[in-house]
């Protein structure tokens, strides 16, 4: 199986500002750890190219792209606030990030699995920046793939719902959108009864998790619903938004996932390795967890095993960041997830099973 990582130094040379939750150094840390743990080799590393305006115009409006290119605050496009700073370099970063997911898609369509560490901007709207996202590399890349294939699966396990991707594909049965996220947090969409409309009814699946849901709750959803649904849908390409902000220590959510479930999800999804696969990054606001979890997830989805250790240089940074675990994996722990959480999730899964047309 061919595989590769798409990454550029420019991903972490950009700085969103001192008080912004996104710390781009997380991508460098993840990339260095993946190399150190030997889950990628030198000939599996690809540089992204800049996406062209034509690539972006399949989704974004010309007016918005022009405003973004100016890199100046513009409230009409939600640019230049605390959430979406408009600072020099942002336009080029967006082109590069989208170019990275396009590259992953082109490579995957020839067979294999490719991970753009900088991608996953699932909140970016066609005419405005939203939730730290400016250009929707996911939609741009899915549209590229749809020139070659009919049926696309998009799976998103970021703690936040993929509102923009859902909106884009709400009325089609050709792109199945599946999202597992925390309920009641930004952007407040992604309810279980948002099932799609018209021809797209049943092709939009949301599993909102209550606070403190933990590994075994997500495993239940994967085994009972997500894996069987993927099998029945028979996608020709799979996109995965691998935000890791549902981890128990992430400052932007209140779920209670550990590295264990990310490793397990990778294992379960590796069953689909014959199908072209594109993975993007996503949320993750604890830089040590981003590096640990992307390394673990990449290893497991590509069928590689890794030892439970961390290199000295990584340990030193970890301790400064407040993580003192001995290895790359979390020590198993539980939130004490209550029966009410289990019942809530089971009811949602049962509701979806009754309402899905396939
Ligand atoms: Zn997120």
How is this structure best described in words?
By secondary structure, this protein is of the alpha/beta class. It has one domain (3-355): Histone deacetylase domain (Arginase, Chain A). The protein contains twelve helices and eight strands. The chain has helices at residues 10-13, 25-36, 53-56, 62-70, 90-109, 137-145, 163-168, 215-233, 259-269, 287-301, 312-320, 339-355; strands spanning 3-6, 45-46, 113-116, 152-156, 175-182, 204-209, 237-241, 277-280. Strands 2-1-3-8-7-4-5-6 form an eight-stranded parallel beta sheet, with helices on both faces. Helix 5 (90-109) runs parallel beside helix 6, helix 8 (215-233) packs parallel to helix 9 and helix 9 runs parallel beside helix 10 (287-301). It is globular. The mean pLDDT is 97. The structure holds zinc ion.
Summarize this entry quickly.
The chain has 358 residues and is an alpha/beta fold. The chain is built from twelve helices and eight strands.
């Amino acid at each position: 199986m061919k595989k590769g990582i798409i990454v550029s130094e420019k991903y972490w040379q950009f700085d969103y500002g001192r008080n912004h939750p996104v710390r781009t150094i997380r991508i460098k840390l993840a990339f260095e750890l993946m190399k150190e743990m030997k889950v990628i080799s030198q000939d599996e590393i690809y540089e992204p190219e800049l996406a062209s305006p034509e690539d972006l115009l399949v989704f974004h409006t010309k007016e918005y792209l022009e405003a973004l290119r100016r890199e100046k605050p513009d409230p009409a496009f939600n640019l230049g606030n605390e959430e979406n700073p408009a600072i020099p370099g942002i336009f080029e970063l967006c082109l590069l990030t989208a170019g990275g997911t396009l590259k992953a898609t082109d490579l995957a369509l020839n067979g294999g699995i490719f991970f753009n560490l900088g991608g996953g901007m699932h909140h970016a709207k066609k005419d405005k920046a939203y939730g730290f996202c400016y250009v929707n590399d996911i939609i741009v890349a899915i549209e590229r793939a749809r020139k070659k294939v009919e049926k696309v699966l998009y799976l998103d396990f970021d703690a936040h719902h993929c509102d923009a991707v859902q909106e884009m594909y709400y009325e089609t049965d050709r792109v199945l959108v599946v999202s597992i996220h925390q309920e009641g947090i930004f952007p407040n969409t992604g309810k279980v009864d948002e099932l799609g409309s018209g021809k797209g009814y049943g092709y939009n699946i949301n599993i909102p998790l209550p606070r403190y849901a933990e590994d075994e709750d997500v495993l239940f959803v994967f085994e009972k619903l997500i894996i069987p649904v993927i099998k029945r849908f028979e996608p020709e390409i799979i996109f995965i938004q691998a935000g890791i902000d549902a981890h128990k220590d992430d400052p932007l959510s209140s779920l209670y996932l550990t590295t264990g479930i990310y490793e397990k999800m990778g294992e379960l999804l590796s069953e689909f390795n014959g199908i072209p696969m594109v993975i993007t990054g996503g949320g993750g606001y604890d830089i040590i967890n981003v590096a640990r979890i992307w390394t673990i997830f990449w290893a497991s989805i590509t069928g590689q095993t890794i030892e439970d250790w961390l290199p000295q240089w990584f340990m030193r940074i970890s301790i400064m960041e407040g993580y003192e675990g001995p290895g790359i994996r979390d020590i198993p722990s539980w939130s004490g997830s209550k029966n009410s959480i289990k019942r809530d999730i089971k009811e949602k899964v049962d509701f979806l099973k009754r309402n899905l047309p396939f």
